[in-house]
Specification:
about 350 residues; alpha/beta; TIM Barrel; three-stranded antiparallel sheet; 13 strands; binds (4S)-2,6-dioxohexahydropyrimidine-4-carboxylic acid; binds zinc ion
Length: about 350
């Protein structure tokens, strides 16, 4: 019998939801993603946000400069625009022509750098109409923002108060329900997507597949496990894992890896975001392997995303090995450091 580790081969995955920030920190985080993924959808929540095609082109230029200085050739950033109350119909058409892959809806105040987000979706009706007409996807941070709504309920309430009316008003609009965290969201997307109607999908992060909300409070407060939407109860984690491993084309990989410097997380009011990019594929493989569903990983990670966005699937193959990789306690982040997800622990799988 051979002692070589268990391996799986798959078509190279893409990350359909990623934050790489800007300036000095971008190079460090981009290196981690580009080592594993062929493409990534780049979130526009910079300060100030990426609200126009001109700003997105400039941002893409800065990404290319960093890729060049890293010596990376086979990685493509896919650009998005940040939807505001003032986004114009003209910008939607311009974005379509420029190859922008989607507009991101942040309800104002929902999360990191969302202050310029949409205050009331009704203000965006003309723009949503235009997006629907040209086939421009809407990428949704699905949480209501009212302080009275319990933070653990904000996603489920969003479905009833915002998403369902939105889908009634714009039945042909392509929607990605980003980083879903609840059973309600998983079932909503599963049931909304039928053989004849397939314009809604969802991304799922590794942390929501691997952890429940206890992980934020295990033996003390754990700021590096805090993200938004926040981790939920175990029953929700189980439902998300079931969705991700179902083989259904409506669920695909989006890490939502969201770098914040160590000091910004370990603070009296710490930022939301988990840095999963360091070994994101290992985290997903561990989650799928944990329930004996590794055979479903390739569809989730490599096929269903490009299919939904009408982009070609990748052709290059990668190999994942079942070989514990220890995760450093800290990694460089520009002039600071960052604490990656599972810092100081091991992840069962890694890229060969
Ligand atoms: O945890 C999060 N961090 N959730 C988001 O929606 C934004 C992200 C960030 O940009 O840091
Ligand atoms: Zn995000």
């Amino acid at each position: 019998m051979s002692n070589s580790p268990i391996q799986i081969q798959l078509i190279q995955p893409d990350d359909w939801h990623l934050h790489i920030r800007d300036g000095k920190v971008m190079k460090d985080v981009l290196a981690d993603t580009a080592r594993q993924f062929a493409r990534a959808i780049i979130m526009p929540n910079l300060k100030p946000p990426v609200t126009t095609v001109d700003l997105a082109n400039a941002y893409q230029g800065r990404i290319e400069v960093n890729l060049q200085s890293l010596g990376v050739t086979g990685f493509t950033p896919l650009m998005t625009l940040y939807l505001t109350d003032n986004t114009s119909v003209d910008e939607v058409r311009k974005a379509k022509d420029a190859g922008i892959v989607g507009f991101k809806l942040y309800p104002a105040g929902a999360t990191t750098n969302s202050d310029a987000g949409v205050s009331d979706i009704k203000r965006c009706h003309a723009v949503l109409e235009a997006m629907q007409a040209v086939g421009m996807p809407l990428l949704v941070h699905g949480e209501v923002t009212s302080a009275e709504i319990d933070i653990f309920d904000r996603e489920a309430v969003f479905i009833d108060q915002v998403l369902e009316p939105l889908r009634k008003n714009f039945p042909e609009l392509k929607i990605v329900f980003e980083h879903i965290t609840t059973k309600q969201a998983a079932h909503y997307v599963r049931d909304a997507h039928t053989a004849t109607k397939n314009n809604i999908a969802a991304t799922i992060t590794p942390q929501h597949l691997l952890m429940n909300r206890n992980a934020i409070f295990a033996g003390g407060i754990r700021p590096h496990n805090y993200c938004l939407p926040v981790l939920k109860r175990e029953e929700h984690r189980v439902a998300l894992l079931e969705a991700a491993t179902s083989g259904g084309p409506r669920f695909f990989l989006g890490t939502d890896s969201a770098p914040h410097a160590k000091g910004a997380k370990e603070a009296a009011c710490g930022c939301a975001g988990c840095y999963s990019a360091f070994n994101a594929l290992g985290l997903y493989a561990e989650a799928f392997d944990g329930i004996g569903k590794l055979d479903k990983l390739e569809g989730f990670a490599s096929f269903f995303g490009p299919d939904f966005y009408s982009l070609p699937r990748n052709t290059k193959k990668i190999t994942l090995v079942k070989q514990a990789q220890s995760i450093p306690a800290e990694l460089p982040l520009g002039d600071d450091t960052i604490v990656p997800l599972r810092a100081g622990e091991a992840i069962a799988w890694t890229l060969a």
